[in-house]
Amino acid sequence: MKPISIDNVVHAYRFYAPLYDRLFGAVLEPGRRAMTETVGALRPAKLLEVGVGTGLTLSRYPPTSVIVGVDVSTEMLDIASSRAKQLKDYDISLLAMNAEAMDFPDGSFDCVVLPYVLSVTPDPQRLVREIRRVCRKDGTILILNHFSGSRFWWFMERAVRSMADRIGFHSDFCYEDQILRHDWKVESVKPVNFLGLSKLVVIRNV
Ligand SMILES: C[S@@+](CC[C@H](N)C(=O)[O-])C[C@H]1O[C@@H](n2cnc3c(N)ncnc32)[C@H](O)[C@@H]1O
Questions:
Q1: How many angstroms separate the CA atoms of 76 and 73, rounded?
Q2: CB of 120 within 8 A of CB of 99?
Q3: I need a labelling partner for 53 at 20 to 30 A (CA). Which of 95, 97, 168, 185 fits?
Q4: 66-71 vs 91-96, strand pairing mode
Q5: Which of 33, 72, 169, 200 to probe ligand 1 with, by most ligand atoms within 8 A of CB?
């Protein structure tokens, strides 16, 4: 499998940006909804969304939170900015940044969310190190992602496995390797989206 580079991500999402909401909006929406409901219950003072994309989640965060969204694709961020402008009562900053090497000081956020990003970023372990650094100790990390091994989706995973660098995500992405290997505390895991395509993982940053 050819590795994904950050240039592959930028290139892929330059192509996807104008189509993204139509291709991946509704189909991945139940997972986003479950994630934003969890954030709503937590009411974090400072929230970071990594890979904010076109900003599909922004309107469902608590308006009392200070919200920061980062993404490496300026084309995706442009669409997110138009959405953020409509949300007059919110405090939202959107920044072009590679989340594997962020500019924020340690422990800047109470909650860090990653909707559909971990299997897109070139080096998921480097991203995990970085989100644990910017999330405060005992803060919450929410990971929403597709993980391989589902009875229903294995055929599609195999079909696109060799195209990771072109399609911009790893379809073959193992929950044990990517989540359970870290010394954080997994608090809950819930299947979301059609036929359990994705999982919402709630993690305590111990
Ligand atoms: C599948 S999209 C998800 C967008 C949005 N979170 C959603 O719920 O639809 C993945 C997004 O992550 C961004 N991304 C991938 N790797 C990144 C990285 N290392 N740093 C910042 N953004 C990244 C991509 O540019 C893209 O906008």
A1: 5
A2: no
A3: 185
A4: parallel
A5: 72
* DSSP designation for 83: H
Strand ranges of the sheet holding 198-204, from the earlier edge strand across to the other edge? 91-96, 66-71, 46-50, 109-115, 135-146, 198-204, 185-192
Best CA proximity match to 113, nearest among 33, 194, 52:
52
How does pLDDT run along the chain (206 residues), one tens digit per residue?
Answer: 567 899 999 999 999 999 999 999 999 999 999 999 999 999 999 999 999 999 999 999 999 999 999 999 999 999 999 999 999 999 999 999 999 999 999 999 999 999 999 999 999 999 999 999 999 999 999 999 998 866 555 555 555 455 555 555 666 778 888 899 999 999 999 999 877 689 999 999 99
Ligand 1 atom index nearest CA of 25: 9
pTM equals 0.91
Amino acid identity of 109?
A: F
CB of 27 closer than 8 Å to CB of 194: yes
CA of residue 111 relative to chain centroid, distance: 13
Residue (of 203, 96, 52) closest to 142 by Cα position: 203
CB count within 10 Å of CB 77 equals: 23
Ligand 1 within 6 A of CB of 13: yes
